[in-house]
Amino acid sequence: MMIDVEHLTKKYPGGVTAVSDVSFTVARGDVVGFLGPNGAGKSTTMRILSGFISPSGGTVRVAGLDVTKDSLKVRRHLGYLPESCPLYLEMRVRDFLRYRGELKGVPYRHLKNRVSKVMEQCGLLEVRKRPIGHLSKGFRQRVGIADALVHNPDLLILDEPTIGLDPNQILLIRKLIDELSREHTLLLSTHILREVEATCDRVIVLQQGQIVDSAPLRELEDRWCPATRIHLEVRAKSDELDVFCRQLPDLREFKLRMEDDWACLELDFGLNADPRQDLFDRVRQRGWDLRELHRKRRTLEEAFVNMTHGEVPAGDIPEEAAHA
Amino acid sequence: MRNLTTLWRREVASLWFSPVAYILTTMFLVVMGVGFWFVASYRLVDGASIYDVLRALYGGVAWFALLMVIPVLTMRSFAEEKRSGTLEMLLTAPVTDWEVVLAKFLGLVTIYILMWAPTLAYLLILNHVNDAQTALDIGALGSTYLGLLLIGMFFLSIGLLCSALTQNLIVAAISTFACLGVIFIGGFLPEVSPSPVLRQLTEPFSPILHMLDFARGLVDTRPLVLYVSGTWLMLTTTTRVLESRRWRA
User: Fold this and answer.
1) Are residues A53 and A92 in the same domain?
2) pTM value?
């Protein structure tokens, strides 16, 4: 296992518990997303993993090494990008990466090549001679990722790597993360759920310092959004629609919204149901005009909202997922 | 050792290439230069020896410069890193807290030495205007600069500790100035206190008397031990303060 966290607890002075009895593992080569609302304990967990702060209880192992007892060795195995991407703004990009490479133990004979490689990988060659303070936020974020990468660590921990970036910069960073995920184990924390969908194999959801769930994305969506949602737009009267909906087999709930003459329906069926053909036939039988009929994709957003609002999933959470 | 030299180089570069260093060095050299001009022109006219001039300069004017310069020089060390968040980046690299503290301290000492280096020119000037009968005593000059280094190191370590205790630069500078001010003013107690007991008690800790001794060419082991151990104590306390983030942060 690359990361093995058992019963991790972090209490701050004053009695605030940031993380409480959290356990999870990350296998070598995995790309895992850390999700949760603000104050859920994501950054605290990442700071403990990086060796910046110590846990109050439990054990944390990175590459088989205890982060408290073998902190220095652990830090050689990981590259960490803190949330605010702090950098020495007065330094030039190349000098900064050389400095960080030296500090992280890259042999002098490989330093130049290694710095050139990460600059190329992160698209920094064109700005290598510029002071970091003169760069855009997107470039600074790339410098932060290059810093995390410079000693070619086994594990990359990126805390909100796309925070505050514009959509174009987000796409570039996401592409970079996607490339990195092929060579490194990656633990990624983000608020942007689409980012997790785009890059992660598995998601760990934290809320109020505890793991709500941990599973591959599809499993998580099935568990927390156990419904097939159909969007239907027909020209019909609302009282007819009420009867229509009540006659539909396996319908769990529906929402109706009128747009002029058109009725817009959101219909939730059982998880594996596909009632599109049946719906089409029923609408045709009634002679209604049909404007739109499609199955809506369940989103991680919905699952996230359900998880972090304490909604109980349809089935029980498997034991291993509950304990990640 | 590699980590220490890497960190030290970065500290020296960041201090030396910042506008603060230039402003401070200029301010320091102006104060010292004006002080030297006053002391030299009055004392030499009165027929005093060049050692009287050096004592007045390094035992008097230098204090003003030290009390002004050291708080500003040290305030950024940790407070700025905390404020900007770079401390997290720094301490998640494979370096120990002690290496970081020591490198920052050595960086400050290097700049401190570089600031004092131009004052060696005063000695050349004094040597030039001096009559041939009293050649400059290299030993006495060496002990003067040794005293400045020891006291400077102790003061710098106090500044470093104050900087580690806050993330506000102004608070760091003012608290350092307050600490150094108390030590400096306390240094007059052996001279001004009416109580002989208090005089006896404070005499071994007076940096003013120590500096006058150093300027006379007297290297006593007691102040030497005092400043080296005081510096060590401050640096280890700074390391503990830094380590406290692990359970406080």
Assistant:
1) yes
2) 0.82
